[in-house]
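Posting this for the archive.
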Amino acid sequence: MQNDASFIKSIKNAIQNNLPGEESHVSMTPYKRGKSSDARKNASFVKLSAIAIHLFKENSTNDWQIILIKRTSNMSSHKNQIAFPGGKVDKTDADYVFTAKRESFEELGIDVNKGELLGQLTPVYIPVSNFDIYPFVFYHKNTPQIMPNKMEVENYYKLKIEELFKPETIDTFTYKNENGIQIKNVPCFKIKQLTIWGATALIINEFKELIFNINVKNQKEEQH
C-alpha cells in the first residue's frame, strides 16, 4: 500500500512516462466523433483553454478527491454542464498552467500559489464549441479553501476517486441540445446526482486509467 508521497510521485511519473492518451477518450466520446487529433486537423481559429484537476485528501477522511463544478446559465458556452474549473486562455496569461490556476481562482477562489503541478494530461478538442482544452493535475496537501463565484459556478462538488471505479458509474443518457434535438446513448459517468459527459468525461476517463495503471503496477510489485 503506497503512502501519500509515493502515490503522488507515481502519478507524476505516470503522467510523464505512461500517459493513457487519446485511446482512453474513445469510450466516453459523444456522437462517435473520433479522436481529438483527427477532428483538430479540420479546425480553424481554435479557441485555447485550460482546466485544473485539483487532487487532495479531505481533511476529515482518507479519501482522494477531485473538484468539479456546475456551470451557470450565464456562461457563453456549455451552460449548466458539469466541468472542471477552467476557461479560455487570456493574452496576458504566461502559459496554459497559469490559465488553469487563474480560472480556478476566478471560479472557486483557489489560491494560484497553492497546489503542486503534477503534469498535463492529453488535450481534448471540442468541435461543437471549437475549444482545445489543456488539462493539468495539481496536488494539494490540504483541502483547498473554496469560495465559488456565483456568476460562473452554480455549485461545486468534491468527487471521491474511488467512485470512478464502480461499474455502475458508467452509463449513457439522452441529451437535448439548445435546438431541442435529442441525442441518444451519449456516454457518461453517473455519480450520485451528477451526469458527467463530454470533454469532462474524456478527461476523467484518462485520469481514471492513469490511476488504474498505477494500482496494477503496485500490485505486481507487491507480489514479487
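The helical segments are 4-17, 36-40, 96-108, 198-223. The two ends are 14 Å apart (CA to CA).
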